[in-house]
Every structure is written in C-alpha cells, then in structure tokens.
Specification:
The complex is a heterodimer of chains A (586) and B (82). Chain A is mostly helical. Chain A has 23 helices and eight strands. In chain A, a hairpin with a 5-residue loop joins strand 5 (357-361) and strand 6 (367-369). Chain B has one domain (3-76). The chains are: A mainly alpha (586), B mainly alpha (82). Chains A and B meet through helix 5, helix 10, helix 11 and helix 13 of A and helix 1, strand 2 and helix 3 of B.
Chain lengths: 586, 82
C-alpha cells in the first residue's frame, strides 16, 4: 500500500478508537466532567499526563530544534522534565489534598479573594489559548503533508474529533483518550528511532545508540557527527553556543513554568489519593522520559542522515521527499554557485531567514525565491518542524512507519489540545460563573455551561488553526514565562508559608506578570531589532525572563506579606490541613 | 498543629530539601554550570557534561520522584492515621 493510503488507515483507526472511548466514557456530573470523578488509576493518570503534556512541540519540533542547535537543545530536555520534580515534591500532593476542581479554585480559596481568583482565571485562559494555537499548526502540518488535504479541512476534522470526546466526556473522556493517545504517540516515536538506530549503530535502543560506535566503524557516532559538522562550517553537535546565564534562566523558566501549567496540575486532581498523586507523577515522568531521552538520538541521527542524503547531491537527483516538502514550503534551495548541486553548510542560506517563494521555477526546476542570498556557502533552508515527520522518509523506512508517525503527531497535538480545552472550559463554567458571577446555578446548569464553553473554546482554537496568527511561534515563550512568574510562586508560597496572604499574592502575581509580559512584548513586538544579547538585561533572553519575573514575584510577596495582616484563622486551618498526612482510607 | 504533625511536616521538608539539592546539582550543576568542565570526561561515546544535560539529569529526575513517593509513604505510615 502507498504511504498515503496507509496513513489514512492508521489515522482512521486511531480516530475511531478515540471516538469509541468517548462514547464509553460519558460524564454525567460536574465532578466527572472536571476531574473524572477523582478515581483515575495513578498509572492511567501517568500515561494521560504524559500525553497531555507532550504536545506537537515535543513530538514534532523538539528533535528538530536539537538537530539544528545541538547541545543547546538541552534547555528543553531538562526544562520540560525537571519541572516534574518540582511538581511532584512541592505542588501536586498538596493540591490533591486540597481536593477541588481547578487551579483558580486553590488560589481563590487559599487567598480568600475573588480578585485573586479572577487574575488566575485570566492567566489560565491566556496561557491555554497561546498553547492551543501551536497544537493546531501541528494538526494542519500533518494533514496537509501526509493526507494531502488542505490545512483547513485537516483542522476541522481534528476539531470535530476533540469536540466529540471533550464535550461529551469532559475530563473522563479526555483521560482515557489520552491514555490511548500516549500509546499511539510513543509507539510512533520509538519505532522509527529504533529502526534508524539499528541502521546507524546496530544498537536497538536509540537512547544508547547515541553513545555507540557507528555501525561497521571504530568511531563514536557523536564524534563522527561533530567532525562532519565542523567540516561543513556548522557548529559541532555537542558544542554549546548560548551563554551560561541564558541557558540557566531559560531552563529554570521552563521548569517552573511546567510545574505551574494549569492543564498539567489539574491532572493530579483526578487520582483517588495524595499517595496516588505522588506516585502518579513518577509514572508520568517515566512515560515522558522515554520520549525525551530518545529525542537527542533522533536529532543526531537526523543531522547525519540529512547531511548524507543532501549534501553535494544534484538537485535533479534529490529524493522525492525533498521536493514534496519544497512544495509544502518548508524546504528551500537557492543555487548560489549555479552548479546544480545542493551545498549544505553552516549559517543561514537566505535573507530574511525563512523562504518567500515567487511563482516561478529555476533552471533545475526548483522553486525560486524573493529572498536575497546570504554571503556564506549554504544553499539549503530546512524548517525544523519537519525533521521528525520527514526522518522516516529520509532514512527510507517502510511506508507503514511513515504512516505511523503521522498518526503519532496527530495524537500528540490532539491530546494536548483536549487537556487545554478542558482547563479553559472549567475556568469559565466553574470559576467565572458558579464561583463568582452566577452562584445560583444548579449543578446541571453548570455542567451544561461547561459543555458550551468547551464547544466555544474548540471553535476559537479551530480559528487559530485556520487563520494562524503570525505571532504563534513568538508567544510560546509567553506561556511558560507567565506560568513561571505567576502561578508557580503563588501556589508554592500558598503551601509552604502560613504568613502568605491575599495582598502579597495579588501584588506578587501582578508584578511577575506585568514585568514578564512587558519584557517579552518589548523584545518580540515593539523593538524586535534590539532582541539580542547586547540589549537583554543581564544577558537573559525573553525565553528565560520568566525566571526573573518569578524572583521578583517572590521578593514582592515577601515584603508585602510582612507589612500586611496575616490570613484569617479558617485559611490557616486550610493550610494546616493540606500539610497533614492522609488519614488511612478503608 | 500537634507535635506529631509538626514532626511529620519537618521530616517532609527535610526530605524535600535533600532531593531538591540533588535535582539542582544534576541539572543546573552538571548539566549547565559544570557542563564545559565535565566535557573533558567521557561515558561511552558521550562527553560527560553533554550526557548529563541530554539524558543523565532526566534519569535522575525519575529516580528522585520515586524515592520521594516511597519515603513519604513511610512517613505517612509512621505519623499518619491518628
């Protein structure tokens, strides 16, 4: 069967599985809709958390970023896993003991304040929508390239599937589809990685293959890759180019941001006990680590394979995947020395960096560009996001593996989108309506509002997919930076400081948020030409500024809490209670 | 809080701080601050600093969470179910 037919088959099969689960797991109460009734097995929650967490960015983009950036990619690997240690040790068990439905719930009650709850709701909605737009690009990418439908149709199909299980099943439906989606995505990630690892290193475990000899040679794969890269004027794969302080701050922002992301935190409300919340975080990180420790291997293998298959090849002899991605606008070739061969070297080939095609073909049949040629010898532009999707074709793996990767990419994007949608819907129906503006509504009405807001949120997310705002890539830093500068300190202090009060929480959140927000907006939107190390404060890029925002939040909180009255006695009792060991359940 | 609960809380904090120091050491320490220095040593085909930041730290993170869950269950047994 052709790759396209197989892709239709695999994607169709996985989608029917998700729909089947949705029908089987309808939610009939708000508790089921928001937290799956609170009786998800910790192992199932671990898998669901992993799928919830690993988005199109982890599945599609991360290995691509590492392939091109080498050692610096570690900020994502450590940042997006290290956050789970903070979550498991400092937040999840206590929030589970608190036993409510949402993150704004905790902030509203712990800080006995509607204002604090509303600030939290605004952050939740902003962070979640930012994040969803990235998922929709992932869905569109897979559909347009592998199923040869246009992006809009792809987004609409994806939305329809999510609508089905999120609106019907709420958290219950989402949880069990996420378990299935985890299985699909991890299988889809590991199979090609194992194949390629065997081809390059004879080692069936890609994470160890990365540290092995090249097949049939007495030279380590990484040493060979470093040599190959420097020879072509690229920086060595294992060499770091970012400044230490920037790496430090970005990694810290990603860790604290991960621990403060509402759609991850809320997963720990779904397990039966505090004990289960702790072990469940461990399972989640094992499931995540399986992909994350494989990613650098995939990245290194891809860089070797790309250099091998493309460098000094005649354009006319380039493999078919090359021209297909060129048609999709994600690969471009500019024949600087007019020899008809592709020269792949260090540096950006084009100015500006991303290709702008004109409606004409060159001598060799390549798509012509309006970009200027840069002065270096590199003639090739490859979009980072295609590395994972294209790698099976680059390595000439069988068609079914290519189809599998497409299904895996969709699973990663849809599972994360669904988790985010649920958080948005709960923030609106529960925190905004039931707890703030319309306390008189019955549970039935609240459930109806939850379904309606989920449906509306899906519609908006779909629009983001069809008309992607140009700033999507720019604002991903927002989601983590804002979570790190707002939720993480406020929740942490709410648990570990009995003195922490309403005034300090609001002042801290507003300081952290406005500082982080202004810094990112300034460098990304107002003066992008100044966005370089020379102008950054202390050499910290907008990606890492959330850490500084978090430190400011902590400082302001400490000062304010010591000059304002302590929390009332019922709140102190609440704090004492979430710290206590769990009573034996019988 | 009663004495027993205070002891439980103190033991919890102590355990957390020990584990978080290890967390900081393997990621920010070995993976970032000491990474260049550690790169002169090798583990299989990896430079050591590179290995910590790309794989080693993650393996340690997993271990830390399981140690925490296991130790906290012990503390729960010792101080809980009052």
């Amino acid at each position: 069967m052709s790759a396209t037919a197989l892709t239709y088959l695999f994607v169709g099969l996985s989608f029917s599985l998700y729909i089947g689960i949705a029908i089987w797991s309808r939610s009939d109460s708000t508790k089921e809709f928001y937290v799956a009734g609170g009786h998800v097995h910790p192992l199932a929650n671990g898998a669901a958390t992993a799928a919830d967490w690993m988005s199109a960015a982890s599945f599609l983009s991360m290995a691509g970023i590492i392939a091109f950036e080498g050692a610096d990619g570690a900020r994502y690997l450590m940042g997006w896993t290290g956050g789970y240690v903070l979550l498991a040790l400092c937040l999840a068990p206590y929030l589970r003991k608190f036993a409510k439905f949402t993150v704004p719930d905790f902030i509203g009650e712990r800080y006995y304040s509607r204002t604090a709850r509303l600030v939290a709701v605004v952050c939740v909605i902003f962070i979640s929508f930012t994040y969803i737009s990235g998922q929709m690009r992932g869905v569109g990418l897979v559909f347009s390239r592998f199923l040869e439908v246009d992006i809009n149709t792809g987004v609409i199909v994806g939305m329809a599937i999510v609508f089905f299980y999120a609106v019907l099943g709420g958290m219950k439906g989402i949880t069990y589809t996420q378990v299935a989606q985890y299985c699909v995505l991890i299988f889809a990630y590991l199979v090609p990685a194992i194949y390629i690892s065997l081809m390059l290193t004879n080692n069936p475990f890609p994470m160890f293959g990365l540290g092995s000899f090249m097949a049939g040679e007495e030279v380590y794969l990484l040493d060979k890759l470093d040599g190959l890269s420097t020879e072509l004027g690229m920086s060595a794969f294992t060499a770091s180019n970012k400044s230490t302080i920037d790496m430090f701050f970005i990694t810290a922002a990603l860790m604290a941001g991960t621990a403060g992301l509402p759609h991850v935190i809320v997963r720990f409300f779904t397990v039966p006990s505090v004990r289960d919340a702790r072990i469940s975080a461990g399972y989640a990180l094992i499931f995540i680590a399986l992909l994350y420790t494989t990613a650098p291997a995939v990245a290194a293998f891809a860089r070797i394979n790309i250099i091998d298959t493309l460098n000094e090849i005649k354009y006319a002899d380039a493999p078919t995947w090359f021209t297909k991605w060129e048609d999709s606008g994600l690969i471009a070739w500019i024949d600087k020395n007019e020899d008809g061969h592709i020269q792949y070297r260090g540096g950006n080939a084009l100015d500006p960096r991303t290709p702008a095609y004109i409606d004409a073909e060159g001598k060799e049949g390549q798509r012509l560009l309006s970009n200027k040629a840069t002065s270096n010898e590199n003639e090739l532009y490859i979009d980072r996001d295609i590395v994972v999707l294209a790698h099976p074709e680059i390595a000439e793996l069988p068609n079914w593996v290519i189809a599998l990767v497409a299904a895996g990419g969709l699973a990663a994007a849809l599972s994360t989108a669904a988790g985010l949608l649920l958080v948005i819907s709960a923030a609106i129906s529960h925190d905004l309506l039931k707890m703030t503006f319309r306390p008189e509504i019955t549970e039935k009405q609240e459930l109806l509002y939850a379904r309606i807001s989920a449906a509306v949120a899906i519609g908006i997310a779909g629009l983001f997919g069809i008309y992607p705002p140009g700033f999507v890539a720019q604002v991903v830093a927002f989601a983590f930076g804002l979570a790190a500068a707002s939720f993480f300190p406020v929740i942490l202090l709410g648990i570990f400081s009995r003195r922490m009060n309403k005034e300090a929480a609001i002042a801290g959140m507003i300081t952290g948020l406005s500082f982080t927000f202004s810094y990112i907006v300034f460098f990304k939107f107002i003066s992008p030409e100044l966005n370089n190390a020379a102008h950054w404060w202390f050499g910290i890029s907008p990606e890492g500024i959330g850490t500084l925002g978090m430190l400011l939040n902590f400082t302001v909180s400490f000062v304010v809490m010591n000059i304002t009255p302590p929390p009332p006695p019922d709140v102190l009792a609440l704090i004492d209670n979430i710290r206590l060991p769990e009573q034996e359940e019988n | 809080m009663s004495d027993k609960n205070t002891l439980y809380w103190k033991a919890n904090i102590r355990l957390m701080l020990v584990l978080l120091s290890i967390w900081f050491f393997v990621s920010f320490g070995c993976g970032i601050l000491l990474s260049d220095y550690l790169d002169q040593f090798h583990i299989f085909g990896f430079k050591l600093g590179f290995w910590f930041s790309h794989q080693g730290a993650i393996f340690v993170f997993v271990l830390l969470i399981f140690i925490y869950a296991w130790q906290m269950n012990r503390l729960d047994k010792k101080y809980g179910a009052s």
